[in-house]
Design goal:
CATH class of the largest domain: Alpha Beta
Number of domains: 3
Strand order of the largest sheet: 7-6-5-3-2-1-19-20
Structural class: alpha/beta
Largest sheet: 8 strands, mixed
Strand content: 25-35%
Distance between the termini: 86 Å
Number of helices: 16
Helix content: 25-40%
Number of strands: 24
Shape: globular
């Protein structure tokens, strides 16, 4: 009897941290290992990665991690995984080149044989399982779909894809690969669902090129484009158009240069040296405001907006936005950056009205729309369709798409992160269990979970502020030498609230009198009592709940006199 289990640790009913696991004959195959960027309410959190506890407990059964492409939501969690699981990582040349830079940034070292380059001709054999790769079109080079061949048929993982046949991908080869998989039999299709509720067709590369060409031919002064750093295809298109119009190109962005350098080194991005502009810091002699200059403002997630704001406020070191500038926005906001994107546009309009914000539907597709998902299903003819890479509304929309081409609901398997979908002898038998799949909140590069307690403290700090009460106490005489000094941040304006501060001092002396008259001072209970009494008063009087921090400094004056004499 053959048994196959599939589950997601991330990427299902959410947008980000894609990590999918296939269990075939006790062997575990990991498809992608990404991260997710936090929304605004997660104060101070830099990234979110997956809980790997199940994989760590079963690391001896892991055959490797198989990467589809180099976007952060698909490879950003590999550093976190390699710190715990020293397994092999398989990916395309470009994907591994970008990954190496990320591993270096995160301080993760790997052996020479841990990163294994694969191509569309690669066939990796593991016991009764073979893994192959096929090209798909996306907005970053060398994107692969992954085909896992089992005794019961192929399990196809598409990752992100589209069918824009104006791109340079060899579609003839791609369709031949899909046809081979279909002929041999596809048990399950793991397809992205982000674009499943997009009915209209997205703009093609040719449409994008035409619009940018028209804009550039009609503009006589400096142009500024906002792009995401991983969007190599659009960067190259703008570079090509700029060269045709005898423009010079400047690419700025903190993290962009590494990806750009990798793309140029591997031949996926071409910028003639004579067309590259080396910008100098702005001073009395240099303003970098040349009419033939095209500036590409790039970065990850919120970074293009942040840089545009700095330019608009004239505090950037390289570019000060001028009324003569034309700004072209090509960055559709990510989840959690919508407010920042809207605010950025408002700030830009204070400087220049020449703002062109291309509608998302006019930009080249990065995800498959409804018709492209139908096309993928029709080509492969899988027994079962499993919607992944998307929130629940996207998964549900994909169910409707599959219904339209004859798939019954029982053949469309919608699950949540952690659910184990099981197949026996080529037949789906249901959700047979679950694995832990919580989130790890990362602040900085320590790869340690920030935790709920810390996040609650940050939430309180952001909402109600902090009150710090400090005093110097002689434990020998049990007297207060100095204080209490009261400092508030984000709570009240102290100059207009003397009555509140005075009441806090009264509470401090009341609690101190209780502990300083006892035989021994219990410092822990002393601080706890101060926090509780002051917090109770503040909430009763102000209906606010700031963090209370008592700082009690024990100072023995007799010992200090002896040490100085």
């Amino acid at each position: 009897m053959s048994r196959i289990n599939f589950f997601a640790l991330g990427g299902v009913q959410e947008n980000g941290k894609n990590l999918y696991v296939l269990e075939v004959e006790k062997s575990l195959f990991i498809l992608d290992c990404g991260l997710k960027y936090p929304t605004s309410e997660l104060y101070g959190v830099d990234i979110i990665v997956n809980d790997l506890s199940y994989l760590i407990e079963n690391k001896e059964r892991i055959e490797g991690v198989f990467l589809s492409h180099a976007h952060d939501d698909h490879i950003g969690g590999v550093s976190h995984l390699l710190k715990e699981i020293p397994t092999k990582i398989y990916g395309s040349r470009f994907t591994l080149a970008v990954l190496k830079e990320r591993l270096k940034e995160d301080g993760v070292s790997v052996s020479a044989d841990q990163l294994v380059e694969v191509t569309v001709k690669t066939a990796l054999k593991f016991k009764n399982t073979t893994i192959r790769f096929f090209e798909v079109s996306h907005n970053i080079p060398e994107c692969f779909g992954i085909a896992v061949k089992t005794e019961d048929g192929y399990i196809i993982y598409t990752s992100n894809y589209n069918f824009d046949q104006n791109s340079k991908i060899n579609y003839a080869y791609m369709f031949r690969s899909l046809a081979v998989f279909a002929k041999e039999g596809v048990l399950a299709l793991l397809t992205e669902s982000l674009g499943a509720n997009t009915e209209q067709s997205r703009g093609s590369i040719l449409e994008f090129k035409l619009r940018i060409t028209n804009l550039m031919s009609q503009t006589q002064n400096r142009m500024i484009f906002s792009l995401f750093s991983s969007d190599i295809l659009r960067i190259q298109q703008i570079v090509n158009i700029a060269i045709e119009h005898n423009k010079r190109i400047a690419i700025i962005g903190r993290k962009t240069q590494k990806i750009v350098n990798q793309a140029m080194a591997l031949g996926y991005l071409s910028i003639p040296e004579k067309n590259l502009a080396n910008l100098r810091y702005i001073d009395d002699k240099c303003d970098n405001n040349d009419k033939d200059l095209v500036v590409l403002v790039t970065g990850e997630r919120h970074e293009p907006y942040f840089m545009l704001q700095r330019m608009s406020k004239q505090i950037d070191r390289l570019i000060h936005l001028e009324p003569t500038d034309t700004v072209v926005i090509l960055t559709t906001p990510y989840l959690g950056t919508e407010k920042m994107a809207a605010r950025t546009l408002d700030i830009i309009y204070h400087v220049t009205s020449k703002v062109k914000e291309l509608n998302a539907n006019l930009l080249p597709a990065s995800s498959a729309n409804r018709e492209e998902i139908k096309e993928m299903i029709n080509i492969l003819q899988p027994k079962y369709v499993i919607p992944i890479i998307g929130e629940y509304r996207h998964q549900y929309a994909l169910r409707i798409v599959a219904n339209c081409i004859g798939y019954e609901d029982k053949r469309i398997l919608i699950a949540d992160n952690g659910d184990i979908l099981s197949f026996e002898n080529g037949k789906y038998i249901g959700i047979t269990g679950d694995v832990p799949c919580s989130e790890i909140l990362i602040d900085g590069k320590a790869f340690k979970d920030v935790g709920d307690v810390v996040m609650r403290d940050r939430e309180l700090l952001a909402e109600d502020g902090v009150v710090l009460i400090s005093a110097n106490i002689n434990p020998r005489t049990k007297t207060i030498l100095v204080g209490p000094e009261i400092v508030t941040k984000g709570f009240i304006y102290t100059k207009e609230n003397d009555d509140i501060l005075e009441r806090i001092r009264e509470i401090f002396f009341m609690v101190s009198n209780k502990f300083l008259t006892s035989k021994f001072i219990n410092w822990s209970d002393y601080k706890t009592s101060l926090k509780n009494e002051i917090s109770h008063y503040i909430y009763k009087d102000t209906k606010r709940n700031p963090i209370i921090i008592p700082v009690l400094i024990s100072t023995d004056m007799e010992i200090m006199k002896k040490s100085t004499s």
